[in-house]
Amino acid sequence: MSRKAASEALSNYWQQHIDRWQVSGLSQQGFCKTHDLSYHRFLYWRRKFEGRTTENIKPPSSPLVPVIYRPPSTAAGLSLVLPSGLELHGLSEGNLSLVQQLLDRLS
User: Fold this and answer.
1) Fewest C-beta in 10 Å: which of 8, 24, 55, 90?
2) So what's the pLDDT on residue 80?
3) What pLDDT was estimated at residue 18?
4) Position 65 in a domain
5) What is the pLDDT of residue 57?
6) How far lies 43's CA from each of 1, 2, 21, 28, 30, in Å?
């Protein structure tokens, strides 16, 4: 095999692995470990291919999702904590009869 043919075969070998990694959903290290590949060589070839064209390279989707924290509103009414540890939140004039029924059942 000529030197050029060997170089192209090696390049194709790594391109196939990088393409498979991109759709695998695995981290780069996880993919290399699963397929018994050198992680450092994988990085070398991935960076080398990034210099060619990026139209076929799609970054892997992240399993992380953004989370928005909203502190509880204090304007949601009153809260009642019973000696048993049961907590009732959101008490207002509009649901006092329901609260009374709950307390009657719990007594």
Assistant:
1) 55
2) 79
3) 92
4) no
5) 52
6) 26, 26, 12, 8, 13
Compute the radius of gyration of the chain from its Cα atoms. Answer: 30
- Domain-located, residue 55: no
45 and 79 assigned to the same domain: no
67 part of a folded domain: no
The total domain count for the chain is: 2
SS (H, E, C) the chain: CCHHHHHHHHHHHHHHHHHHHHHHCCCHHHHHHHCCCCHHHHHHHHHHHHCCCCCCCCCCCCCCCCCCCCCCCCCCCEEEECCCCCEEEEECHHHHHHHHHHHHHHC
> Which residue segment(s) compose the domain that 23 sits in?
3-50
Per-residue confidence of the chain (107 residues) as pLDDT tens digits?
788 888 888 999 999 999 999 899 899 999 999 999 999 999 999 998 887 654 555 666 667 777 777 766 555 677 878 887 888 777 877 788 888 888 888 77
Is position 68 within any domain? no
